[in-house]
Amino acid sequence: MNQTTMALGQKFPLTIKRLGINGEGVGFFKRNVVFVKGALPGEEVTVKITKLQRNFAEAELLSIRKQSEDRQEAPCPVYDECGGCQLQHMTYEAQLKNKRDIVIQALEKYVPEIAANADIRPTLGMDNPWHYRNKSQFQVRKEGKRVYAGLFTEGSNKLLNINDCLVQHPVTSKITVGTRKILQKLNIPIYDGKTLNGLVRTIVVRTGIRTGETQLCLVTTRNELPHKAELIERIKKIDPSIVSITQNINREKTSLIFGDETIVLDGKETIHEELGELAFDLSSRAFFQLNPEQTVHLYDEIKKAAALTGKETVVDAYCGVGTIGLWLARDAKEVRGMDVVPESIVDAKRNARHHGFQHARYYTGKAEDLLARWRREDFTPDVITVDPPRTGLDRKFIESVLKIKPKRFVYTSCNPSTLAKDLQQLTKIYHVEYLQPVDMFPQTAHVEVVTQLILKKSH
Description:
It is an enzyme of class 2 (transferase). By secondary structure, the chain is of the alpha/beta class.
């Protein structure tokens, strides 16, 4: 960055050209990149520099001189403070367009020829882009006599009390608020983030959107729970959907929500949830997609891209509890999945058994090690599907894919930047047939993409 042209506190007009990966507006001042939170593409704004880095600057939005027609009033009363959502000030139609654009920007940076030539489809959105999250994890703190439950404001240790979060399923909000009031009434000790004293840290609520079963989990610093019987009775009265009340013990000073030990206080250990034709039993700590309605669309896109006819062998790498492989199992000759988390593999095996899929097998270990071993045993999959963490694919895994050359490779990504970087390697032997963005988290800057890669004829 040409530092001499800008100084902290400097104010100047700026035209916003596009949306950044975190939902901020991006403009250029004397060829320097400037990120402006809250500004929208096409707007002419006045900004003030708040942070200078070597290759970019951050600025505060002072005023809007020319407003975008995509701008709207954010419906959430604590939107500006919370930081949980980044795009409520933009109409939903525009959010979908800009998410596709975020994908294109990432491709332009790392694989410009794909950005120019590939079929990048319109983002698949939701009919109702609100109240979609099936799980909330709200921190609990006390001020004076009042018990608060909510999220910490962006970059601070101030807890924002949230009664009705517009992206949460309404039943999760109702149960969180009800529980918070009961904790206050019964005067149950609340965790103090500074002194680390107190008992109740977090209220976690997850609801089965299809089944209507809800689980409440109280995360506490130790096993004891004063007024336990009365607490349980009162919680059960908050909502008839509650079928499971659990307590998780997390003694550590950590930002992780859960500890290792979970006790069932009342009802069942798990709640039941369905995705399409698949059914799952979810314990308090089990991973499950946060937006089940859109997950069905996402998995259907993966199924389309896998293009199975019943004759193919499929490998589901980074398989977690096996959901994607099971979604494809009915149309596959054989499914093999792997993950480095042993508990996930236990769940995946149980899920396969539960659905009667005898031809789906699951293994604990690294994808690249297992693929190499199977290759020696003369097993090469026809299709590989991946849904890796935000960091993208492991380099060794990419190397093994380039060696074994499955006919089709379906890459589901939650981070367009790492997807684009990985495509640099994969396109040595694969042709990118199309990319399908899917909006899993409306009102936020996140975007998922399903990419279909087909082995080039020459390989």
